[in-house]
Protein: RNA helicase
Amino acid sequence: MSFNELGLSPHILRAVKELGYEQPTPIQQQAIPAVLAGQDVLGSAQTGTGKTAGFTLPMLHRLMANHGRGGRRQVRALVLTPTRELAAQVGESIIKYAHHLPFRTLIAYGGVSIKPNLEAIKLGVDILVATPGRLLDLLTQRALTLTELEVLVLDEADRMLDMGFITDIRRIMKALPEERQTLLFSATFSNEIKELADDLLKSPTLIEVSPSNSTAEQVNQRIIKVDRERKRELLSHMIGRNNWQRVLVFVRTKQIADRLAHQMEKDGLNTVAIHGDKSQGARNRALADFREGKVRVLVATDIAARGLDIDQLPHVINFELPQVAEDYIHRIGRTGRAGRGGEAISLVSQDEQDQLKAIESLIGLSIPSEILAGYEPSGKPTRQTLPGSKPVQNPPRDRGHANAKHNAKAPAKGRGKPKADGSKQPAPARQKDRGGVDAGLTPMRRLPRAQRDSYQDNSNEE
Structure:
């Protein structure tokens, strides 16, 4: 099957061809006809399957059918995402697919000034990609109305629920018209997702490219058993011995991310960490360096890595297993994207057996395990520490940790208290929580001036 057989507008097909796509992926083959027919959709697909194009292409086609009705531009399509990074990724994809269409697209997320969003809305917006928190800010300020909305998309709905956005989502739903098309996509089909779908969707078409809660078949999964205290040593050994040049490493906390990155730098591996406490500039630089090959290892927390789209990422390492089993699926979904092969290795210590059982139960698979010579586990209970570091004593979850500048100045030896020089910086203030948190990453490159402030105008109007 080709895209030409799906009934899409010639302008959309032209953009698809220019982007180098020839044949639709399985989810696109199923989703595009359903969306074109005006049906609500409940879709499950792993990341990297072409899901974004699966809902974007038919959405653009339907918007074109009713374009030019006159009057001031109103938001006619809304895409909700859990994180800033995913909003940027989806928004930029929409802009590319709509290159030959007269639509104005706005990407809005928290953590940056709202002023550019307000200015863009005054000019008129057809398609809005937003995180729940920023959208509620805009609605509260009466900056926009959603009474003309035709299509609503909830992307990675499972993550939105995990991050506590359910209350925000329900508040947003009250501002939407009853008559609309709703598309809900999730990597997993939990009971909570099914309940949300029952509330929002009307007789939806179920699209399930792979079995619910499954992992991508092209990802080779394996477990290496090792004592927690030797994980960092083993990780550096594996990367060096195999000459891996691009590795994404997952950890549970911001503190561990910073500490692991610092110690791997000492091992001679170019490493950076990304997490919610890093500044926007630091995250952008880290991602750019990782993409360009200037950085060999990227250490990330689950929230920070959400929505990462890195081409040809061959290796994902779980330095620690996630506390929530579903996060394992999201983690290893960073590799093996769009049909490419990939490898996901989990370093598992004795104290992580419960998490491992939960993961294997979720995916319905017993992951092959092995022990590497020289790194045989002792079988003794392990303390949650990294080699050469103090024990982790359950730090406050949202407290800011040492930034890159501080790490660079830290002495290699001796861990005495720093001298009081009055220069200590306080942890970054947190915005008032509405039940969810706009987290994640901002765009990974500086946009051209025409796209600055996450606003793209393809309308060709003065």
About this structure: The CA atoms of residues 15 and 99 lie 7 Å apart. Confidence is low (pLDDT under 50) at residues 387-425, 427-453. The first helix runs from residue 10 to 18.
